[in-house]
Specification:
Layout: E1 6-22, E2 27-31, E3 36-41, E4 48-49, E5 54-59, E6 68-71, E7 76-81, E8 88-89, E9 94-99, E10 103-111, E11 123-128, E12 136-143, E13 153-161, E14 172-187, E15 194-196, E16 199-201
Antiparallel strand pairs: 1-10, 1-14, 2-9, 3-5, 3-8, 4-7, 5-6, 7-9, 10-13, 11-12, 11-14, 12-13, 15-16
Length: 207
């Protein structure tokens, strides 16, 4: 078959492996402000809470029999339950972890030789093992400042909206970052390219 060549924009992308992560700017640990015994947990995993909700009660000698109300510091969902009722806890003992699942990060591992191509604000897309036929979109919002010694990679943070809740922290992701866009260039489909020795060629229908 034949098809016409046409003018359009051509994107150059950089591929990288990565993982889905909580948005740490919208994640908080719930701890008691006093030592005591944890008497009640009001929420469980995946329960939604609002800032100020009483999530647990702690019996402590300082309050003379009145339980200490442990409150949620942010709006979000209970992503981790760290303690159980009846447990003795200190001021630094984690009871819950709360996070907002609607805004997540995808951490891309960029090879050292490719770091110069990545800039804040670039568009990115990625797929996951759970949804191999679906592409998710985000933007590069942060570039790390330290190369991992063993892997020789740099972490790049992509922010992604997860309002539908399908993405879960810990998922592996295959990421493509759009590094350059060439505008108004002549385009043909990939399937039109043929290989001849070391060259790639295309057949042109003259009439």
């Amino acid at each position: 078959k034949t098809e016409p060549a046409m003018l359009g924009n051509l994107e150059t992308t950089l591929r990288a492996a990565g993982r889905v992560s909580e948005n740490m700017n919208k994640t908080a640990k719930v701890v008691s402000t006093l030592e005591g015994r944890l008497t009640k947990l009001n929420y469980d995993l995946n329960d939604r809470v609002k800032a100020g909700d009483v999530v647990a009660l702690v019996q402590t000698p300082e309050l003379l029999g009145k339980p200490l109300e442990v409150k949620a510091p942010i709006d979000g969902v209970i992503t981790e339950r760290k303690s159980t009722a009846g447990e003795s806890i200190g001021k630094d003992t984690e009871i819950y972890v709360i996070s907002d699942p609607a805004d997540l990060w995808v951490i891309a591992e960029i090879k050292e030789r490719d770091i110069g191509q990545v800039k804040i604000g670039q568009d990115a897309s990625f797929t996951t093992l759970a949804y191999p036929n679906d592409s998710f979109n985000g933007k590069v919002v942060r570039i790390g400042n330290r190369i991992e010694e063993e892997s020789r990679t740099l972490e790049v943070r992509v922010e992604v909206n997860n309002a539908d809740g399908r993405l879960k922290p810990g998922m592996f992701a295959d990421i493509e970052i759009v590094t350059t866009v060439q505008e108004n260039v002549l385009l043909i489909s990939d399937s039109a390219l043929q290989t001849e020795g070391d060259d790639q060629i295309v057949f042109v229908a003259l009439n």
